[in-house]
Amino acid sequence: MTAPMLEARGVRKSFGATEVLRGIDLTVERGQVACILGPSGSGKSTFLRCINHLEKMSAGRITVDGRLVGYREGAGVLHELSRTELARQRRDIGMVFQRFNLFPHLDVLGNIMAAPTLVRREPAAEARAYALELLDMVDLAGKASAYPAQLSGGQQQRVAIARALAMRPSLMLFDEPTSALDPELVGEVLAVMKRLAAAGMTMVVVTHELGFAREAADRVVFMDQGRILEEGPTAETLEHPRHERLRAFLARVL
Ligand code: ADP
Ligand code: MG
Question: SMART domains given for it (predicted)?
Answer without folding.
Answer: AAA (SM00382)
